Amino acid sequence: MPEDIKIIFSNNLNKLMNQRKETVTDVSEKTGIAYSTVNDWKNGKKMARGGSLQKLADYFEVNISDLTSNAQFNSKLNNMLPAGNTVRIPIIGEIACGDPIIADENISGYREELVDLLPHGNLFYLKTKGNSMTPTIPLNSYVMIREQPEVEENEIAAVLVNGDTEATLKRIKHQGNMIMLVADNSDYPPYIITEDNPARILGKAVKVSFDL
Asked: What pTM, to 2 d.p., does this model score?
């Protein structure tokens, strides 16, 4: 294994750990990887391989290439335009049926965010149109979404409904084999996903902001 690859991997791992303010002990305990192994990776003595490399990528929610490449992965956020220490994250307006969610024709504007405060992954904003998620998410808020096909139980997700033409924000809950989209506002009944009422998760809600 060339020495420069180990150094690149070490630099990327240190950057990810610093962004999360995590120690070698934190990473070891949360991933199940031996402390001495993580410490050797951090200090550039060894290179992670195979399943361990994938485990690290999954833990930090990045691609394997973000750990092994010399590229600055903070600058690779898709559909974001760099502007100094900030990036412009697209706001999704109306969704054209069949288009990727972050297609030019779906973007109604942008919001600037500090790069160092952003989670990794492809990000976009949705602006709430109703009050189904109040009081958790106020009316007319901007909700940052990280693209991912699944979320954990009871997490808030952006979900495509109505023939993939409408994005809604709801909690994902399971009852037996049934999947429900549940509003925080009790005035709204749950949306039960069936063959007649299909839905597709776009991503996880990671931040809420609004303009005064």
From this structure: 0.57
3-class secondary-structure state, position 91: strand
Q: Is 69 a catalytic residue?
A: no
- Residue 170, beta-bridge partner list: 157
Distance CA 107, CA 127 (A): 12
Q: How confident is the model at residue 184 (pLDDT cuts 50, 70, 90)?
A: very high
Percentage above 70 pLDDT, the chain: 84
CB atoms within 10 A of CB 169: 25
137, pLDDT greater than 60? yes
What is d(CA 120, CA 118) in angstroms, rounded to the nearest whole number? 6
Q: Which of 132, 173, 204, 207 is catalytic?
A: 132
132 included as an active-site residue:
yes
SS3 113: strand
Mean pLDDT of all residues belonging to the chain: 81
Over 90: is that where the pLDDT of 171 sits? yes
Domains and CATH numbers, the chain: 3-73 (1.10.260.40), 77-209 (2.10.109.10)
Marked catalytic residue, from 10, 46, 52, 170: 170
Which residues are registered as beta bridge partners of 147?
203
Are 19 and 27 contacting, i.e. CB atoms less than 8 angstroms apart? no
- Label the pairing between strands 166-175 and 156-161: antiparallel
